[in-house]
Amino acid sequence: MVLPGSASLLDCIDKRLLVILRDGRNLTGILRSYDQFANLVFQDTIERIYAGDCYGDIPRGVFLVRGENVVLLGEIDGDREDAMPIREAPIEDVLSMQRTALDARQATLAIEAKALHAKGFCTDHDKNDMY
C-alpha cells in the first residue's frame, strides 16, 4: 500500500537516510520525526563534502530540515556505500580541494564570458545588462 504525501515517510523512521538540499549540501542521518510539510528531524547528522575522489565529513548532530529545501531523500545501503571508489580524507584537505576546483571553475567561466562578450553577447551583471 502506497501512502500519499509525507505519510509515505513512515517506513523511513529510525533509518539512516541521505538528503540532498537545494543549496547542494549532502546530509546523512537517522530520521527521527517529520510533519505534514515534510519537515525532517535527523539525529547523528553528518554533512558530507565531496571533492574529486575524496570526501570529508562534518558532524552536525541534531538537524532540522525544512521540507521545501529537500531535493532528494533516500535510504542508504551500507554495503554499497562501503564499496564506493572514493576515499575519506581530512575535512581541511577536502575543503581546500573544493576551493581550488571552485576557483578554477570561476576562472574558466570568466574566460568564457569574456569570449562571448567579444562576440556581442551581454555579460551577466554588466551595467548595460537590462535584466
UniProtKB/TrEMBL annotation:
Record localization: Cytoplasm; Cytoplasm, P-body
Any one annotated GO CC term: ribonucleoprotein complex
InterPro entries registered for this protein in UniProt: Lsm1 (IPR034104), LSM_dom_sf (IPR010920), PTHR15588 (IPR044642), Sm (IPR047575), Sm_dom_euk/arc (IPR001163)
Principal location: cytoplasm
SMART domains with a match to the protein in the record: Sm (SM00651)
GO biological process: deadenylation-dependent decapping of nuclear-transcribed mRNA; mRNA processing; RNA splicing
Keywords: Cytoplasm, mRNA processing, mRNA splicing, Phosphoprotein, Ribonucleoprotein, RNA-binding
KW Nuclease (keyword) present: no
Complexes and interactors: Component of the heptameric LSM1-LSM7 complex that forms a seven-membered ring structure with a donut shape. Interacts with SLBP; interaction with SLBP occurs when histone mRNA is being rapidly degraded during the S phase. LSm subunits form a heteromer with a donut shape.
Family stated for the protein in its record: Belongs to the snRNP Sm proteins family.
Record protein name field: U6 snRNA-associated Sm-like protein LSm1
Species name: Allomyces macrogynus (strain ATCC 38327)
Gene expressing this chain: LSM1
